[in-house]
Batch of 2 targets.
Target 1
Amino acid sequence: MTSFSLRQVKLRPGEEHREAVDVELPAFEFGGQRYVAVPETVPAALVVNRANTGTVFSLAFATRLHGPCYRCLGDATLDLRIHGREYQAEQPDDEELTTPYLESNALDLSAWARDAIALALPDKILCRADCAGLCPFCGKSLNDEPHVHEAAAADSRWQALAALREAAPGGDAAQIG
Ligand SMILES: [Zn+2]
Ligand SMILES: [Zn+2]
C-alpha cells in the first residue's frame, strides 16, 4: 500500500507542494461483490497546501474498476475521476478538523484513494445502463438470450382469464337489467 511521507515537505503558510505519486488501489467489496482497479497502481497528483491554520491535501487520479454487473453478474467496468480533499488543522479542537489518513507525518494514500472511490460509486455498477439482467425462471442472461418462458406466458394468460371471470357477474347483471 502507498503512503507518502511529509517529512521532506516543509511549507510556510501560503506555500504549496505538488507531487506526482503512484498510488496502489486495494480491491474492495461493494454490494457483496469484489471490485478491482485495473491497473491496480495509478498515477495521481498530490497537492499539499499550507494555510494559516492548517494544511489542505488534495489527491486526483483516474481509475477503471472491474467487477460483476449488479444485474447480470457479467463483466462490468466503471471509469471514475477522483478528486479527494482532506484538511488537517494545525491545532485541531475536534475530529472534524483532522484527516484520518495522516499518521506519524505520513499520508496513507491507498486508504484515502479507496474511500474516495467508495464515495464516487453509483448506486449500482452495471455492465451497461440498460442491462436486462438474469431470467428469474432459468437464470440465463437476458442480454445474451432475450426470451420468455411458457410458464410465465401461461401465468399471464391465467391472470387475464381470472380478471375476465371477476368482471363477468357485473356483465350478467347488466344483461338482466
Ligand atoms: Zn449486466
Ligand atoms: Zn429463462
Note: Residues 3 and 125 are 28 Å apart (CA to CA).
Target 2
Amino acid sequence: MLKVADVIEKAWESGVAIPAFNIPYLPMMEPVVQAVVEADSFALIDTARPEWIKFESKGLAAVAAEFAKWRQPAYVRLHLDHVPVIDEDQQRVDVLPIFKEAIALGYESVMIDGSRLPLDENIKATRQVVELAHAADIPVEAELGAVMGHEAGPLPPYEELYASGKGFTDVREAGRFVRETECDWLSVAVGNIHGAIAAGRKDQKKVEARLNLNRLEQLHSATCIPLVLHGGSGIKQESVREAMKRGIAKINVATEIRQPYEATLKETKSVAKAQQAVYERTTWIVNEYLGIAGIRKMVGGVNQ
Ligand SMILES: [Zn+2]
C-alpha cells in the first residue's frame, strides 16, 4: 500500500496540497470521507490532543475506530495532529506515550508540536519523536514558529500581528531545525493563525489571514522538505493557491468544517443535518477553495 510520506512528496513535487481535516466530533468523519471520495481527491483525517481534551473526539482509539468504519485507504488516511509539549493552557504534556499509542493504533503519520519551547528544547523534543516514529516507518511533522490562536487569551489585532511578523518562522532556525531533527514535514508560521478553540470564543468568526509568500519561499529553500500550513480556514484563496507553489504540501482545515457542524446542530438538533453541513463545506473546500478534485491518481492514492 502506498505510504502517506509518498503521497505528500508527490503533492509537494506537483505543487498541490493535501488537506488534513480535523474531527473534533466523531459524526464529522462520515461526511468528510464521503466528500473526499466523491471528489476523487485525497485527504488526511486529523485528530489533535485539544480535540479530545476540549471537544468530543474522545481520544485516539475512538477516532481510529470511527475511521475504520468508513475505511477508504485509497482516499483517506489517519494522521495524529498537534501533540503539544506545552499545551494551549501552558501545561507540560507527557507526549511519548501518546505517540506510542497512536502508532500502535495504526495512525500513519504524526505531529509533535514543540513550538512553545525555546529552539534547542523544541529540537530535542522533536528528535525524540522522530526516533520513535521512524523506527515504525512513520513520518513526523514538527512545528517551528508560533501559529497562534489556540491559546485562551485574546490575540492582538491581526494586522498588527502580521505587520510585526511576531512568531513568524525564522529562516535560519528552520534550516538548522530540519537538519538536526530530521523531521519529514514542517509546519510554519507566515501569517496563518488557528481558529479559536477556547471556551466562549470557539464560535468566533476567524479573521481573513494573509500569507507572507516571500518568507514562505525562503523557508522552502532553507529546508527543502514539504511544508505544512496550519490554520487553513479563512485564508485568502489566492494566498493558499500561491502557497502550494512554494512548498506547502499539506493544509490543515479545522474551523471551516467544525463551525458549520456546531451551528447546524445547535439550530436543528439534528446530527444528520449537521453532517450534511460538513459534507457541503468539505466538498466546497476540495473543489473550489483548494481546487484539488480528481488529484487522487496524481498523488498516488490508487486502489491496490
Ligand atoms: Zn494546527
Note: Residues 123 and 180 are 7 Å apart (CA to CA).
